[in-house]
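Review form for a predicted model. The reviewer records the input and the model, then writes brief findings.
Reviewer: anonymous (R2)
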Amino acid sequence: MVIVAGLETAELKPGFGAEILDVNLARSSDETLDAVVEVFNLRGAVLLRDQQLEPDDLIRFISRFNEPEGHTITQFTMPEHPQIYLLSNKVVDGKPVGAHNDGVGWHTDYSFRENPVMCTMLYGVEVPPEGSDTLLADLCAAYDELPEDRRRFYDSLSLHHSYLHFMETRELGRKAHTPELIADNPDVIHPLVRVHPRNERRALWVSTGTVKEVIGMPNPEGLELLEDIVKFVTQDRFVYRHKWRVGDVLVWDNRCTLHTGTLYDDKKYTRLMYRLWAKGDKPIGVAEAA
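Model under review:
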């Protein structure tokens, strides 16, 4: 056990993340919630188990990170709380209640936006006894292991992110897009190496699905380089695998992690998760941070 920001914590894996112990989010003061956010800023992810939360509790908690972020696709948002998005394979009255197999594939949320989301929060309401794990890759640890010449090379690169490219090429959950959605989500350029605004660590800020090209490199060479980097950062030594229990709240920092969901036996088990986002800021590269 380690005390961080006045809270009892245990590492999720050596050097990454923190399980915060003996905190009841529904009954905590704003000061305690702010301490949880501070641990998040230092550790890249936080886990709190055995929570019993109503939607208002979740909104209050995510708001301590920043203003809640809305959702590009609103089909599965909670009517009374549109900041909460449902992930589920359940069907009620012949209609799905949530997005199924959403988030499978290594990525960071909303990387196609000028200001990607700061963090993603998941709350486990119904959890399969096997499968449906969430994996988090520590992009700072991966950057730190690079040789100096490779760091300098990656520091200089930028990536072209595209919502349209993502929607047209995603393997699971491919959806039709509209002119309005495309207009609201124009292509953006972000640095490959991102400097964290709170702790100044550098992260190999790659993603799959949204990246159309590495600026200044022809395809397929550029995308092959990106694939090699993703393979590097998602090695087991950089990855935390979260096995869900009902009542788990897991929050990860999209500024310094990649994540992916995993599949489960959706004919045998049901799953229901609540997902929330907090607004972020424009990624800053090494040259801009200097």
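Findings: The two ends are 35 Å apart (CA to CA).
Further findings: Residues 73 and 181 are 9 Å apart (CA to CA).
Recommendation: see findings above.
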